[in-house]
Amino acid sequence: MKLRIAITGVAGFIGSNLAERLLAEGHQVVGIDNLAYGLREQIPAEVEFFELDIRDRRLSELLRPDDVVFLLAAKNCISDCQDDPVETASINVAGTVNVFEASRRAGAAKVVYAESSALYEGSDVLPTPEREARPQSFYAVSKLAGMAFAEAFRRYHGMRMTALRYFCVYGPRQDYRRAIPPVMSAFIIRLMRGEQPVIYGTGEKRRDFIHVNDVNDFHLRCISDSRTDGRVFNLGSGVSYSVKKIYQQVAKLLESSTIPAYRPDLQGEAEETLADISAATELGWQPKITLEQGLASFVDYYRTRGVPQLEN
Ligand SMILES: NC(=O)c1ccc[n+]([C@@H]2O[C@H](COP(=O)([O-])OP(=O)(O)OC[C@H]3O[C@@H](n4cnc5c(N)ncnc54)[C@H](O)[C@@H]3O)[C@@H](O)[C@H]2O)c1
Fold first, then answer.
1. Once rounded to an integer, what is the mean pLDDT over residues 171-190?
2. Average pLDDT over the chain, rounded to whole?
3. Centre of ligand 1 from the C-alpha of residue 77, in Å
4. CA-nearest residue, atom 9 of ligand 1
């Protein structure tokens, strides 16, 4: 069935990939973004786009009864959030509540919203199940506040909602324009430009990476499968790789023998992230893209589109 689906954060990495997928599935897509971090050119042309802040009260006027609303807009660079907890709360808490309230007023069918594996910062249980939420950073705490508000909206208004805890999502249009870009884009871009990539710490930290196409498979499930209502799901691959291993894989793909530069460790980062994905897999979802396939297609993406320059 063709649905009207609203995506906040549509100009960003996950939002633009989701828009593309939903359009390919025949849905109508309305996109909302204030372009604070995202790029207009990333929004597919068929999206009906509104440049608006998620804190704007006029948001409810853009939504219609029976819309499915994806809340992906957020202030999400952990170090930026540490520098400005007030703006972090403003966007990720007040903005989140405004999206929930606008969805309620409009009579939306469902809200699917982004949490983060950062909620597990204070847990040493691996693989980490959904009940382990122990946020530490301002970013993670802001996501926890969003979760508490979602519960209240469900309690008082019976809204259908699903929370998604993404681990390290990667793929085309991943945001590399940060002081410290995500490792995969950073390694690929540096090596393709003939520059020396940087590893912070020893390279032994391990991360659970999940390709954005696999994440989109679960997004579609949230729209069609009522068993996702009122629940929270980890979205990772259930496998972790060391940063060093990622580097070796990328270097092999690009046939590079460049030795990376090692710099002091970044503060406050977990030694390992690893998702317990049993809640999602019990519904029939499985990540399909292996690390080798995902990295190869990521390299192809930059080969076709051109290799950007990193800021630092
Ligand atoms: N990418 C990941 O690996 C990852 C991991 C965990 C959680 N998440 C969460 O998933 C969501 C999407 O992440 P992403 O990687 O696509 O991020 P992104 O930064 O690429 O996209 C976020 C988009 O939200 C927009 N935005 C920010 N503040 C806004 C505001 N006040 N009003 C309107 N738009 C605003 C930005 O301009 C940007 O286009 C975020 O909520 C993020 O916290 C992502």
1. 90
2. 96
3. 9
4. 114
Q: Going by CA atoms, what residue is nearest to atom 42 of ligand 1?
A: 76
Q: How many CA atoms lie within 13 A of 186 on its CB side?
A: 19
- From 166, 215, 218, 234, mutation site for ligand 1 pocket: most ligand atoms within 8 A of C-beta: 166
**Is residue 167 within 8 Å of residue 275, measured between CB atoms?**
yes
Backbone phi, then psi, for 29, in 5-degree steps?
-120, 130
Angstrom CA distances, 295 to 59, 180, 250, stand at 37, 19, 7
pLDDT tens, residue by residue, 110-136: 999 999 999 999 999 999 999 999 999
Residue nearest to ligand 1 atom 1, measured at CA: 169
Q: Which pLDDT score, from 0 to 100, does residue 180 have? A: 81
Q: Using a 6 Å CB cutoff, which residues line ligand 1?
A: 9, 11-15, 33-38, 53-55, 72-76, 91, 95, 114, 116-117, 166, 168-169, 175
Distance 258 CA to ligand 1 centre (A): 32
The reported pTM is 0.97
Chain Cα centroid distance, residue 135: 17
> Which pLDDT score, from 0 to 100, does residue 279 have?
98
Residues known to be catalytic: 139
Per-residue pLDDT reduced to its tens digit, 227-272: 999 999 999 999 999 999 999 999 999 999 999 999 999 877 889 9
Among 17, 30, 37, name the best residue to mutate to test ligand 1's pocket (greatest count of ligand atoms within 8 A of Cβ): 37
Q: Is the pLDDT of residue 65 over 90?
A: yes
* Mean local confidence (pLDDT), 74-96: 95
